[in-house]
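Final report, closing paragraph on structural work. Over the funding period we assembled a curated collection of sequence-structure pairs, and we close with a single example.
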Amino acid sequence: STADAVPFQFMEIGYYEGSGFEAYTKFLPKAEAHSIEISCLPEGPQSEGKWPYGNFAIKRDSDMYDKLRANSRLHCGDANKVSFLNEVWSEQMNRIDAPPLKVVIDDASHRSEHMVASVFFWFPRIEPRGVMIVEDIQPSIADRFRTQFLPQMM
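Its predicted structure, as stored:
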């Protein structure tokens, strides 16, 4: 991203501890950067819409975490739930004054069904000449994504 770059939105799915997000924002200083993370949900059973494994997102840099939460840039929720994604999109990103969504990087659960849901939700919202990256299409949990879904997209 250069000094004369046009502002745009960037969405990272899978904030985890924030190191990837921090790198992206340094590389893309003109981006209005957003991230989604499930672990910053209240602790408790997943059946109640909570997260039972603790908050990974706050561990590395609590100041950055607090700032992102206060500025509605770190969205806590399940990126596999369309209702949550619609809420993030309609209430935080699809504003009249918002720059266009140009970059989406999915680095979340790496499960086939989650990656497919991510593509179906985010891809139609990316502006022309934008890009969507789905990371870590690894064997086993992502086999169906690599072998069944991707070939149909190509």
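The mean pLDDT is 87. DSSP finds five helices and five strands in the chain. We thank the funder for supporting this effort.
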